[in-house]
Amino acid sequence: MSNPAETARAARNAAASSSQEGANQPLRLHQRCELSSYGQGEILFVGQTSFSHGIWVGIALDDTAGKHDGVVQGKRYFTAHPGHGIFVRSSQVHIEEAVAPPAISRAPPAANRIPASRSGQVLSRSSIASTSRSVSPNKPAARVSRPSSILPPPSAASAASAFGASARQQAGSPQKRASLAPKTPARTSTAGIASGASTSALNPRTPARTATTATGRAPQSTVARRAVGTASSTPGSTTSRATPANRTPKTTGTSSSRSSRPPTSFDVGEGEDDDDLMAMIRAKLRIAEKKREEDRETIREAERIQQESEQFLVVKPKMAAKQQELQNELKDLHRQEREWNTFKEEHEREMAELTDQVEILTLDKEMAEERAEAASEELQLLKDRVEELQLDIEVLREENARFESGPVEEGEKLSVGYIQLEKQNERLKEALLRLRDLTAESDSEQKQKIAAMEKELRELDEIQASYESTLAKLEQSEALLEDLKIQLDDALGAEEMLEQLTERNMALQEKNEELRLINEDLEALEELNDELEETHIETEKQLQEELDLKEIELREYHLRNDSLEANIVDYENTFVQFREVVLNLQSEAETLRNDKETRDVDRAAAAAEGQAIANLNLKLQSSTMKSQAKTIELEIGRLEASQAKRHLDITSVYLPKKYFEDDKDAVESLLFFQRIATKTEVIKTVVESSTDIAGSLVGVIDERLITICRMRHSLAHFIASSRQISALVQLASIPTFLKSGRMFKELVSIERTIDQHIDLLRREELKEDDCAKDYRRFVKMLEDFEFALLDGSSESIDSDLAAKELGSATLFDLDLDTIAAALGFSKQAQIGDGDTSGLLPTGDIDMRLNDLDISEVLFTPLQELINHIRSTKVPARKLLRRLAALYANDEAVKMEAIVKLPGLGHCSSQLVAFASMLATSFNEYVSSVRTNKSTFELKDILALVSEAAKEAMSSASNEDGSAQMSTSLAARAAAAWKPSLTETTNLGQTVTELLNAATEQDNVHKISGVAPWLGRVEEFRQEQDTAADTQRNYLKQTEDLRDLYKQIKVRDEVIEENRIKIERIAKQLQRSRQDNETVTTLRDDLVDMTKRMKAYEEGNSALQQELEQLQIQYERAVNDGARTTAGEGAAANAPSSDGAVPTLPTNPTTITPSGFFNPNMPTSGNYEVSYLVDQIEALRGAIRYLRLENGLIKGRDLLAQVQQLPAL
Prior knowledge:
Layout: H1 4-24, E1 32-35, E2 39-48, E3 55-61, E4 71-72, E5 75-76, E6 85-88, E7 94-95, H2 116-122, H3 157-171, H4 190-202, H5 274-405, H6 410-594, H7 603-652, H8 657-691, H9 693-698, H10 703-730, H11 734-743, H12 748-762, H13 768-790, H14 801-827, E8 847-848, H15 854-888, E9 891-893, H16 901-932, E10 936-937, H17 938-952, H18 956-965, H19 969-999, E11 1004-1006, H20 1012-1133, E12 1150-1151, E13 1157-1158, H21 1169-1204
Parallel strand pairs: 8-10
Antiparallel strand pairs: 1-2, 1-7, 2-3, 3-6, 4-5, 9-11, 12-13
Helix pairs in contact: 5-6, 6-7, 6-20, 8-10, 8-11, 8-12, 10-13, 10-14, 14-15, 14-16, 15-19, 16-17, 16-19, 17-19, 18-19, 20-21
InterPro entries: CAP-Gly_dom_sf, CAP-Gly_domain, Dynactin
Domain CAP-Gly: 47-89
Family: Belongs to the dynactin 150 kDa subunit family.
């Protein structure tokens, strides 16, 4: 048999080549195709979509393995049934190759029909040519492909052997194959049918082959990929050989017959002509050559893609440089933006400051002007007033002087008034002069101020103009900034696209390298795993055997350790006794040694004592030997324990990592609660043994005993809570178990405090009150922990029922001891020292009993309460032992049978509070009476009892009301003690009922459940069992990932190629736009040049006309010159009338025929024709020069315009 790994690898290679062939074929609508993950279907859409870029293929699947019905994001691309439509890439589509359409229109006869089990696969659609399906070589049963397949039997053994080898080589490739129909129709043979039947009967594993004849050849492109089974037999043989199903899958199908007759089945054993075989081999050879050509084309295409990739790598640095340039430009733009923003802010700030300054100056100016005007007016008024007063003073002085000198006449008085008027007139003139001067000064100052303000106003206008220009520049800058931002966004988009493509390329390269390395590592790990698997099984067996042996040895060591500990206790006791005996013997020996001489009579007794000593020595020696043996066994036990711990540490390394993440903490939490419960039990046991509470309750009771009883109650409550949580975690669900591991670390401080208490107890420094307070706080923490642990859990938990029952019974038993101690202490409170029976008076203390007997009112109820508690103690002890036995056997009393137990604890707690308050109040009252030497009032004692009952017990309220209504002190005393007596009586009855219910076996049920760590172990085992499947799935997924990577690589190459093409097209489009712009510009220039050329042509025609006119004038001038010459000759022969000879000026300035002045033109009488010709040539040269200069000017302008065009 072939190696499965090689078979799988060959299958994957074949699938990859098949997918490549399918990808290279063109896609057409309504073609049949096949998808590797979804099955077969029909192509209904090929093109681009709106939900994603690229070419997508819409397929309607035959099965409900799709995702939609052809509608994606509200847009319909094709129509399909719901759940049958799907979109894939073209690289994932494998086109099925069609065969020739069947030519048979009528059904075959019933005798020659294909069996019903194969008909559903053989008979396919009659209108559409179906294609073959791939056959997996790993399946034992071969799948039937759609097209028909006829295996032509060879006619000779040599041909069969030659062709069979190639067929077996091609049989392992699971590619799509088409049938090759023989040229000649098959012959129907009953012998062949019989032979097929006999072959099927002899070899049931060989599947029967049924086929019909075909009219034409199948496509030659798929014949070379088809596996053809061969058989070696003679025409007359009745047996045939078939290739095993696990090596060569057999395919069956149907094809149309050449004739109109129905197809007939035939046996493989029938022979055919060698021509058919040779034709088929030639066809396969041609197909192989064609396939080889296709492979060459594929290689050339791959080389072309590689060259394009190299070109992309060459272009990549340029793109990076362009990116760097864009980044630099971006930085410059950012810098310019920051500068413009800074300039804008500074300018706005300066404008605001200038505006504020102008406003402030304007206000200051107005205020200064107003103040100046007011001050000037006030100053003028004051001056006028001063002058008037001075004038009045002078006038008064003169009048006074006159009156002193004598009486004054009326004329003198008038002269005095006149003088005053004159002086006033002078003063007014002076005031006018001063007013004129002040007005002139004020006008000059105002003019200066107005000039200054006008100057400031002009500056303000300039600043305003500057502000407006700056604001316009700012708007332009903002517009430019927006444009730059848009360009920046475009640059960033291009940069991001480039970075994404670069990162994607690098990521794909890294992923390819990683996958290659992973493949190599996995191959090496696969080989290593095979070797390790072999050694692992052997090692596991050996470790299991060693583990069993170690467990047996560990149990033996535990037994030996227990016996050694018992022997150690015995040895210690023996040592103590031996030391005592040795001391006694030493003292006696010393006495005997001193009295030996005097006590000869006692020799016999001494001999007997010596014999006793010898016996004791023998016993001591034997005990010493036993202690040595126990010591040896103890040391060996310690060694075995250390070895077992070491073995556990080594074995824990083999545990999975998942255990150390969660389960380790959960296991430690379980051990933690058990450990703190045990340590607290040790403290409780030591305290009880050192105090002897049971003996103290019978004798004299002190106040410390009550404190110890309270501390013991707190310890027991803590132990019960710890055991309850431990039992809860031990049978909890896996989430609760793991949750306890995450939460218990908050309680680690409790264990440290317990260790401190143990250390204090070892040094005998433990304080009962502090210890009780700590443990009451610990109980509160444990209750909160339990509530948080079960918070949100819906599971019904009764695993802690036994622990709860045992804890409640223990607390009730301890409450009884506390009640007895408190009541006994209350009874023993004494006022004097003369009597020990109770609260009886002494000689120096007065007692007011109100004609009542204190024994009946006080001592008798106390003793009755104590008796009730003692009688209740017996069934409570029995109930405690019963529940402890059930707890040890993982059993508990049903809740409905022991439902009164929590209420019993509540009642006992009330009685504890009542007894404690009673003891405290009695002790304080007696101490105050004894200290103050006051009168002992019985009614005060009864009031203390009533108050304690009212505060501690809920049932005392009604009794207290009835006692208040009664006026008799005896009735009040009875009412005060009645609630406590009733409660103690009810306690005894309730405990008896609970004991009876607990002793009945019908009320007992077994606490069962699965430990959470066993479930976790099962999960670990399942994960370990699925490791092999996971490895296989991983390998399969790795292969799928490799195929997907190839497809992605091809797709990315196509995308990259399209991107490069798009970039090229974009560049070409940009060039074409620039060319169009250049052509448009050149066209405009051409139009301008055409216009200029027309203008120049018009000028040229004008010059030509002028030249023709000059030519005409030249001819006229020649004619005139000839005539003039002839006239001059005649005149020379005949003198003039006045006797003078006419002459011409020597150098006259003449006008040329063209209108130009030429001072050098000869004007002699003999006007030469050659000179005129030279003048005409000169004019033509001037015209040519003007044309050339015009052309040069045009060319220079055109060249300047061309140079201004952007570079291509």
